[in-house]
Amino acid sequence: MSRSVNQLVGYGFGATYVVVGLLGFTVSGEHAFAGEHGGHLLGIFAVNGLHNVVHLLVGAALIAAAAAGTAVSKAVNTVVGAVYLLVGVVGVLIGSGSLNLLALNAPDHALHFASAVALIAIGLAADRVRNPAMHG
Fold this sequence. Notes:
By secondary structure, this protein is mostly helical. It has one domain (5-125). The protein has helices spanning 5-28, 49-68, 70-94, 106-125, and strands at residues 39-41, 45-47.
């Protein structure tokens, strides 16, 4: 059975986020579950327990959507991309203060913006259904 571009991206990003979420627990144990401080995954990306749980949930949602089919995967990729765009903007705005419950840092922001662009672009542009009535 062939998979659509959105499904492949959903499975790929989903698996990546699940792995990142699991690996995050190996470096975040010394820190509060939620708060501005966290461990550093790969020595770069700040994570805490809440950030890890979010990664696991996002990964699971992307995988479940990919398994549900092209239309669901297309919608979820776009929505998750939009949410990551918002997380990127909010993360930059709140900085490293007490509102930063996910222990976000500059490399996290860059990765969230990159994920947002990729997921939104794939969600909106790939797997478009042509309407035969509109194409003569």
